[in-house]
Design brief:
Number of helices: 20
Shape: elongated
Radius of gyration: 35 Å
Bound molecules: heme C
Structural class: mainly alpha
Order of helices and strands: HHHHHHHHHHHHHHHHHHHH
């Protein structure tokens, strides 16, 4: 912590000695004009991209990051004596940005709600620490994630850190095996994440409440507030499962085993939709990786699966008979509505799996079984009623036919008499 503290202090010293612009300057005309003219893409691209950025929109110019004098038309605009720093080297970038972004008073003038802790967070992240402590310049700097010149608010769909784009931004390094060669870490996070239910929710359903890279790892590399370890982040959204898991036998055992919590059974990046097949000792069951029928955990695992299968079976049975009655024209909408309670119970029982006890699952499943039994009974009743009505109809038809027959006979008798 001492080192980090020292780094923060160092950062603050640099900030204090680097004057913040008194106010937003008008766009730096001479820099842009000349850079667009010299016919070198490396020099022109920044000038072109900058025009659409949030900083240009706020009235800042090139000098706000690079220094120099925008009123000079010639090469003397880039005179170090006028504060020109050239292209900042990678270790310098975070200082260039946080000169403004860590200055609460300055930022308040533009946006009182804007956070000013990006540098503080960044230098405690793996990226920031490696850069500042080890001089490792392959890690992400502010400009790698945000770009240097095309910076836009994260909510802008064109921003490199918009929820739909941030995974590719992180992946530009983390999925690049060559770039990551020196580090002994996997490079499959992007590929795996793109197969996950989370990415599907974000990209197909447009549900931005599902996580992308920075929701789990923190915007600036430090894990989100209140989370001591990224493995615990799942519980921020999946509250019920996390509460049950934390109190379960596995919570402590998994720490001793050195396996992650939720990710042991769900993966961290390739989180797929859960299914009953994950439970028990059959094929695809996660429990089978550590348990067998001859140990207590395995026995319980198989038992939990049986309960859930039973409930699903009973629900299906009740649902089918009510459907049959409905198709035959019987009024069963109330019964069908009540049966949906059994479906809810199934969902609750699936969540209760995370307590890894028979009681927890049994409690939810039994409630569902009772509802399913009632629903089934109502279906049987409806079909019986239908049967009864049909019989009644048949009997009345017979009686009516008999009456008509009797009448015909009577009429003929009368006719013969006359
Ligand atoms: C008269 C033309 C001209 C003007 C005006 C000008 N530049 Fe340049 N700039 C250049 C040229 C040419 C280079 C390439 C110089 C080199 O490679 O040594 C360059 C390079 C740069 C670089 C890259 C330096 C590097 O190390 O790669 C930056 C950053 C830069 N200019 C910023 C600015 C800023 C900020 C201003 C305005 C204050 C400005 N320029 C004004 C012509 C100009
Ligand atoms: C918000 C801060 C910021 C502003 C404003 C800014 N730059 Fe930069 N610029 C950077 C950073 C950071 C880098 C280094 C990027 C990197 O290392 O990838 C850079 C790099 C450059 C380079 C070198 C590009 C290269 O590929 O070598 C040029 C040229 C340049 N800027 C010109 C400009 C011009 C011209 C403007 C005004 C239109 C401008 N910059 C405005 C932050 C800024
Ligand atoms: C001269 C001061 C200054 C410098 C230097 C600066 N910024 Fe900014 N930045 C601002 C201001 C002011 C805003 C606009 C805040 C607002 O009005 O919402 C802003 C906005 C942003 C936003 C959009 C935030 C949002 O939620 O809307 C991002 C991202 C950003 N800056 C990143 C950077 C990065 C990365 C660098 C360094 C490469 C940098 N800034 C350098 C002053 C600066
Ligand atoms: C590893 C990638 C990464 C790095 C490095 C990074 N940022 Fe960010 N930044 C993000 C993401 C992701 C967001 C938030 C996106 C969102 O809110 O959905 C963000 C948000 C921001 C915002 C908007 C306000 C906020 O805090 O949410 C500002 C300003 C900002 N960053 C500045 C910086 C500065 C300054 C640095 C360098 C000290 C930096 N960033 C380094 C990825 C990064
Ligand atoms: C410019 C390239 C680059 C970008 C962009 C980048 N990273 Fe990194 N990241 C690295 C490098 C290099 C390391 C160091 C690897 C190591 O820890 O040994 C690293 C380390 C990490 C680590 C720690 C890995 C470990 O356990 O050692 C995490 C987590 C991480 N990055 C997440 C992200 C996320 C999330 C984003 C996007 C918001 C991102 N990175 C963007 C290059 C990058
Ligand atoms: C749902 C949460 C979640 C999302 C989304 C997520 N991660 Fe992770 N990530 C984790 C967890 C949990 C770990 C394991 C941490 C540990 O074991 O210390 C991890 C580990 C990592 C590591 C360390 C190396 C490794 O693979 O174990 C890197 C690098 C990383 N993630 C990058 C990314 C990138 C890049 C993205 C987006 C493409 C991403 N993560 C999306 C939760 C997530
Ligand atoms: C930022 C919130 C958030 C975080 C963090 C998060 N998730 Fe999710 N997760 C969601 C959302 C939203 C869905 C989609 C909900 C749905 O359709 O049922 C989802 C879906 C799931 C599903 C599929 C649910 C099903 O019905 O089959 C699983 C399993 C899952 N997440 C596990 C995890 C794990 C494990 C982690 C941590 C590594 C994690 N989640 C982190 C929000 C989050
Ligand atoms: C990473 C390995 C691992 C996985 C996967 C795993 N367990 Fe366990 N579980 C253990 C260990 C180790 C113990 C403690 C030793 C024991 O009782 O077997 C344990 C204990 C249990 C217990 C408590 C047994 C008792 O003695 O009361 C139950 C119940 C249990 N597990 C159920 C499950 C279920 C259900 C699954 C699948 C959803 C599962 N486990 C998946 C490793 C695992
Ligand atoms: C020991 C294995 C195991 C662990 C650890 C585990 N789960 Fe699960 N999880 C399962 C199984 C098995 C299912 C499927 C239950 C079913 O559908 O019958 C499941 C289902 C889910 C679902 C979707 C179904 C639902 O409504 O519950 C979510 C969401 C989920 N888990 C999140 C988490 C989170 C968050 C954690 C960590 C706090 C976690 N899981 C830890 C085994 C595990």
């Amino acid at each position: 912590m001492g080192r980090v503290g020292a780094l923060v202090c160092l950062g603050l010293v640099v900030l204090a000695t680097w004057p913040v612009p008194a106010a937003a300057q008008p766009p730096a005309e001479s820099c842009v004009a000349c850079h667009l003219e010299v016919g070198d893409d490396r020099l022109a691209t920044p000038a072109k991209e900058f025009g659409n950025s949030v900083h240009a929109a706020k009235g800042f110019g090139c000098v706000s990051c690079h220094g120099g004098d925008a009123n000079e038309a010639g090469m003397e605009a880039m005179d170090p004596a006028k504060g020109y720093i050239g292209k900042p080297d990678r270790e310098q970038i975070s200082q260039v940005c946080s000169r403004c972004h860590s200055d609460a008073r300055f930022m308040k003038r533009y946006n009182p709600a804007m956070r000013v802790d990006q540098l503080t967070e960044y230098i405690t992240s793996v990226h920031g620490r490696r850069l500042m402590e080890l001089g490792d310049d392959k890690v992400a700097t502010c400009a790698d994630c945000h770009t240097a010149h095309a910076i836009k608010p994260p909510s802008d769909p064109r921003s490199s850190v918009h929820p739909l784009r941030v995974a590719d931004t992180c992946g530009s390094c983390h999925a690049d095996a060559k770039r990551m060669e020196a580090y002994n870490i996997p490079t499959d996070q992007l590929q795996e994440y793109k197969q996950s239910v989370h990415w599907k929710m974000v990209s197909v359903k447009g549900d931005l409440s599902a996580p992308t890279c920075n929701d789990c790892h923190g915007n600036h590399g430090a894990t989100p507030p209140g989370i001591s370890w990224v493995g615990n982040v799942c519980g921020q959204c999946h509250v019920v499962q996390a509460e049950l898991f934390t109190k379960s036998a596995h919570a402590k055992i998994f720490v001793d085993l050195g396996t992650p919590g939720c990710a042991t059974c769900h993966e961290n990046h390739a989180v797929t939709r859960a299914s009953d097949d994950m439970l028990g000792l059959g094929e695809g069951a996660v429990c089978a990786g550590c348990h067998a029928l001859d140990d207590k955990g395995g026995e319980i695992a198989a038992g939990l699966r049986e309960r859930i299968d039973l409930l699903r079976g009973e629900y299906d049975k009740a649902h089918a008979i009510l459907l049959k009655a409905e198709r035959a024209g019987m009024e069963v909408s109330q019964a069908e509505f009540e049966l949906s309670g059994a479906k809810d119970a199934l969902v609750k029982a699936q969540a209760a799996v995370h307590a890894f006890t028979v009681e927890a699952v049994k409690k939810e499943a039994d409630a569902g079984l009772a509802i399913a039994a009632k629903g089934y009974e109502r279906g049987v009743q409806a079909l019986e009623d239908l049967q009864f009505r049909r019989k009644g109809l048949a009997v009345s038809v017979v009686i009516i036919l008999a009456l008509i027959g009797g009448l015909v006979v009577k009429i003929r008798q009368l006719e013969r008499k006359t």
